[in-house]
Amino acid sequence: MLSRIIPFIGWFKGYNMAALRADAIAGLTVALVLIPQSMAYAQLAGMPAYYGLYASFLPPLVAALFGSSRQLATGPVAVVSLMTAASLEPLATAGSEGYIAYAILLALMVGIFQLLLGVLKLGLVVNFLSHPVVNGFTNAAAIIIASSQLSKMFGVYVDKADHHYETIIRVVESAVHYTHWPTLAMGALAFGIMIVLKRVNPKIPNVLVAVVVTTALSWGLGFNHDAKAPLESIRVPAVHEAINGFNTAVAGIDDLATQRTALGKAMKEAEKGGDPVGILDIEHDQSVVNVKMARLKLQAHELRSELRETLLTGVEQPDGSLLFFAKDAIPAGMTSDGRTWRVKVGNGRLDTAALKMMGGGAVVGSVPSGIPAISAPSLDFEVMLHLVPFAAIISLLGFMEAISIAKAMAAKTGQRLDPNQELIGQGLANILGACGKSYPASGSFSRSAVNLQAGAVTGMSSVFTSLMVVIALLFFTPLLYHLPQAVLAAVIMMAVIGLINASGFIHAWKAQWYDGAISILSFLCTLAFAPHLDKGIMVGVVLSLLVFLYKSMRPRVATLSRSEDKSLRDATAFGLRECRHIALVRFDGPLFFANASFLEDQITERMMGNDKLRHIIIVANGINDMDASGEEALSLIVDRVRSSGLDISLCGVNESVMAVLERTHLLEKIGKDHVYATMENAICATHESAHQDGQEDNCPLTTVCRLA
Predict the structure, then answer these.
(1) What pLDDT is stored for residue 565 in this prediction?
(2) What is the spatial distance between Cα 250 and Cα 388, in angstroms, rounded to a whole number?
(3) CA–CA distance from 518 to each of 144, 250, 529, 552 (Å)?
(4) Neighbours of 534 (CB within 10 A)
């Protein structure tokens, strides 16, 4: 009992210094991969890069202590990071304080959901996400994740559109207009280092080497070159107009947002007071505010795009300040500093006294030193209500990824794996992680593989991993300042390449064509609906359930006959000659309310299609359950068959179905002498009476009786 509450006490049975050394080496190795990878995934989730380190501090430690897998490495992962961004983007601007607070709250909700599933032993609920759906979603997510990093690779900035493919079109158009070649070169160099080292020696931490080399180059070459300048230093009238217009639009949006909040409060009061006229007036005012806000947002988007596309050239003044002119429009007698400058535009108002000017590539920037303060996330029940479906999907997806990895490793190590305990571990990891400013985390395939290959013996390796992250947060964050954003983009793109699995579609199609179709449709819908990824998953789940219901409502019903190898097979499928007087009908599935009438129709069809028929044997081997509707249908079938002058028997009835027949007294109606243990017994017992005075020569079922 104690080992279920505190699973990690089992680590220390026979634990020795050799195991401790192996765990320490494995933990260090995983940390070398985790630290740069987590920062990349945090940005994929719309969080500042250092929040990836926060998500790598408590979650790996807690998941290892309370999970059942000893090698599973928990922390930020690509798909969960993408889902986090997709769920939070409608609520707040990525990277803002509100967005970060919601991400931490989402981690808490994910953890609670997983913990409840584990405690209630409901891990099987994950089966609602079928393999074809997950395969289609994962492939689409990999493409979405990789393509979402293109803007960082090209060094361009665009507003996100309603659909992901529209955003990518904007990125391509912006890259055609202007690509920051040093940024692209940094990303390409990182790709080259990771690919070469992976082929030369997979044990070398290629991600860490790429990060170290490119960060050193970024620092040495002055890759990042930002400056602050007043609006007057930009000698382009069109830029002045665009900036002033943009600030006016943003101010208007802020004012309208305040009005909308006030109207929302007034609506609640009107609803409480039961004032229908007041409610209508407020709804009208809200509609007007929303239309005005939509217009201002469109105006701000157009001006922001104009400013981002404006390329400037800097001219250094004697006092060290810079004047900015339109590209290739420097006045005579002035010399350019050789850089292409752009105005950095976000969603907030621009400070005209100190505009942010970009003359180089983007880097991570300042990373706060120290461990985040441990505190409970602030609760916002309206936001939580919006996040419930996303939290459920992220919980199931994250757990599916974690448990599939854990099962694969358990098969190699011979370790016993408890899915419900793993849910508890992942749930506690996200709950306590949220208290340490973490966004949702899960088990990582790549880092778990590294952990196993490095020789991890127990979850103590994850303890060492967390310790290394703490050391990095305390002492090494200043070294991360010059890490290029393009390198983090390359790390993400390199990591998700392994998620693309085209053979999964072919495999699913070969298994069942409808599984392949569901996988392909899930893939296409996820791509089409992105960034609303939950819709793609829902389409796949609904299609899977519809197929399941259809198959349950119309299970396979086969008429059996003797084949050349003397076995009883489906006569239609194998082109076998059937007996004219005996119908051997096999029903493949539980007999319940959804398909009871289908069995009636099948029996009636056989009776009407063969006027020589005398006996029907229902082969019940495939009927593993029966409800009241199924029992009633079977009773009606018995009445109909016998009232038509035919006889009916059952064979291969299992214990649960037999219990239903006995409790409802249907067994007495059928007759115990009409219920047989095997098909052979049923055929031999009925063959002679069914063929008495018959006109069938060489009955295919005759050999059954001879064999018996």
Answers:
(1) 79
(2) 31
(3) 19, 44, 16, 17
(4) 18
Tell me: the pLDDT tens digits for 474-496?
988 898 899 999 998 998 888 88
How far is the C-alpha of 700 from the C-alpha of 605, rounded, in Å?
Answer: 21
Q: Where are the beta strands (DSSP E) in 329-455?
A: 340-343, 355-358, 442-443
Q: Determine if the peptide bond prior to 318 is cis (ω within 30°).
A: no
Cα–Cα dist 159/532, whole Å:
16
For residue 473, the 8-state DSSP code is: I
Helix 78-88 crosses helix 485-496 at what angle (to 10 degrees)?
Answer: 120
DSSP 372: P
pLDDT score at 69: 85
- pLDDT digits 0-9 by tens, 650-665: 999 999 999 999 999 9
Buried b (16+ CB within 10 A) or exposed e, 545-558: eebeeeeeeebebb
Cβ-proximal residues to 216 (8 Å cutoff; 6+ apart), any chain: none
Q: Is 621 helix (H, G, I), strand (E, B) or coil?
A: coil
Judge whether 325 and 312 are in contact, CB under 8 Å. yes
Which residue, among 430, 433, 429, 402, has the nearest Cα to 418 in the 3D structure?
Answer: 402
> CA-CA distance, 119 to 417, in Å (whole number)?
16
Cβ-based neighbours of 109, under 8 Å, separated by 6 or more: 384, 387, 388, 391
DSSP, collapsed to helix, strand or coil, labels residue 538 as helix
Q: Are 588 and 555 in contact (CB under 8 A)?
A: yes
Burial class (CB in 10 A: 0-12, 13-18, 19+), 352: middle
**Residue whose token pair is 């989730």:** 45
> Average pLDDT of each block of 10 consecutive residues along the chain (708 residues)?
69 83 88 88 90 93 89 89 89 86 95 92 74 86 89 91 90 92 94 92 85 93 91 92 94 90 86 85 90 92 92 88 88 85 89 92 88 87 89 87 78 78 92 94 85 84 92 89 91 84 90 92 91 83 89 89 85 88 91 90 91 92 92 94 93 93 93 92 89 78 63
In whole angstroms, give the CA distance from residue 132 to residue 518.
6
Distance CA 148, CA 493 (A): 9
The pLDDT, as a whole number, for residue 90 is: 83
| Two tokens, residue 255 | 């004012």
- Rounded distance between C-alpha atoms, residue 653 and residue 663, angstroms: 15
- Taking the C-alpha atoms of residue 224 and residue 344, their distance in angstroms, rounded to an integer, is 13
Q: Decide if 579 contacts 700 (C-beta within 8 A).
A: yes
406-415 contact pairs (CB < 8 A, 24+)? 406/67, 406/68, 406/69, 406/71, 406/72, 406/443, 406/448, 409/69, 409/71, 409/72, 409/448, 409/452, 410/69, 412/452, 413/70, 413/71, 413/452, 415/69, 415/70
Determine the pLDDT at residue 189.
96
- pTM beyond 0.85: no
| CB 346, CB 247: distance < 8 Å | no
- DSSP designation for 234: B
Residues 50 and 477 sit within 8 Å (Cβ to Cβ) = yes
**DSSP state letter for 458:** S
DSSP 179-225: --HHHHHHHHHHHHHHHHHHHH-TTS-HHHHHHHHHHHHHHHHT---
Considering the chain, what is the average pLDDT of its residues? 88
Tokens of 490: 């390359």
Q: What is the pLDDT of residue 2?
A: 57
